[in-house]
Fold this sequence. Notes:
- Helix content is 41%, strand content 27%.
- It is an alpha+beta fold.
- A 3-stranded antiparallel beta sheet has the order 1-3-2, with helices on one face.
- Strand 2 and strand 3 form a beta hairpin.
- It is elongated.
- The two termini are 22 Å apart.
Amino acid sequence: xxxxILNGGHTPAEHALQAAGHSGLVLQAxxxxxxxxxxxxxxxxxxxxxxxxxxVLHAARLDPEVSAQIFVLRPGEDAPLERAG
Length: 85
């Protein structure tokens, strides 16, 4: 398992939306962005580790400003697997 914790990193636009009371939109946008990037992140982790990624989990919070990416690796594999679907 690989866990990446990211402190800060919100854009000025996200800060402005949050200040205007639109925190839900910030979290929704981040969730959509991570969905769009998941396959790319999965491939990077597989290439770097030589192991397949079983699943990717993501969570984000606004206060404190922190997000996490969790890559659950497949056990005992020597090479990445093709992702079904």
